[in-house]
């Protein structure tokens, strides 16, 4: 049985040539970058190695591919700094011409082999592990007193028996999940071309992919009163945002829940209209009226509705809410969704390459009636284009906020019928209507203008308007749009498992992308849901009868 300690080494890759590159490079952040906390997005990516390619060749080629992608997305090689006004930027100095890649060999340790990880469905207990990330990773990093900054990017390549685990962390002020997915795809594309020089060459790099200018503050647009938030999903924090997670690690539990594809289909059917749209059957309730007849919900909407309902129920005891008091408890509870708005966000400057405009949907209808366009006179503002490139790495996320009375969210489950539909239906519809509302370009323009009017351009002064940590609200983010299982093939086989690598926050729920062909997944492979909760709440959730009808625990 292996029992030795891990061996480690570092590899220096050149990311700047002072003979041809400027001695220093500075890359500012955009408005939507500014509202993200100064934390990293830490992930692990697990691969199977069959021994046909030498390990040293794999490491060398991956380092060369990383070197190439860092010369395209140049902010990656810098460190996070802040100016006197608190604005963040990435800066590469004269002394930072090389980037350090860490390599850890775990093959002679007790760390599980690839086969063991695969047999256990790549469990949280092994892969939510900061030892797989480069030294210096901190969940909530603080700027060092010596002025050196916080590394934007950390990379560690972990060799395990029969496999490789990439530990990657990129600061959230510079990328969102889609941005990391784009960078990974580009890194893989470059590396794959080294392994297979006779194969397709990487597509030419388009500078517009890396251009944050369209989402930066426009000085010609007059500010608004930042004390009045433009959208209900965000709030101004006069004392700054909280610096940490708010729950001690020993109080937290993490879990992956798994929903097979066949059950996902049934769950969506349960949350959907009992008849197709416009077929003349049973009337749709008044509160379902939105675009068209308001009947459509997505699979994500249905699954998120289930998780919102069950997670909230698991937290009732924490707040002393009894079944007897619940029936009359109309306090509003919220679901915050992080939604990708690359195709919808308005820009007031032109990118360095043409970006196709996306037709705007119908004017938004506020789910709560609290949003107004009265603070914006379109005649006085620049005419925007719509959308940024799909390969854009920066934050293009808007937070949508759906609210329901607590007793309506947790209404008892009846037997579904046309006259008495599933309680998931109004919840899923609320989620769908809210997402449609919050991704509309008009609302996004109003939000961008408000954020840029806030102190420090929103850095540390804007937060999500949600009571999630030990509260009754829930945050959900769907990574199902990520294409890592399709695109993150470095030349020695496709990705087998994508996992978050550090303890997740209380009440945060991730929908992972579906593991497709070539990952070892079965024909009925569906969606993995990654969730962090306070330990007592997680135990109650594990015993939730409604959740157990649809999901199973994955990994251990």
UniProtKB/TrEMBL annotation:
Keywords: Transferase. GO terms for biological process: secondary metabolite biosynthetic process. It comes from the Eukaryota. It holds the Pfam family TRI-like_N. Residues 285-294 have a biased composition (Acidic residues). GO terms for molecular function: acyltransferase activity, transferring groups other than amino-acyl groups. Residues 43-185 form the Trichothecene 3-O-acetyltransferase-like N-terminal domain. Residues 367-385 have a biased composition (Low complexity). Residues 273-295, 351-387 are annotated as: Disordered. PANTHER family: FATTY ALCOHOL:CAFFEOYL-COA ACYLTRANSFERASE (PTHR31642:SF310), TRICHOTHECENE 3-O-ACETYLTRANSFERASE (PTHR31642). This is Trichothecene 3-o-acetyltransferase protein.
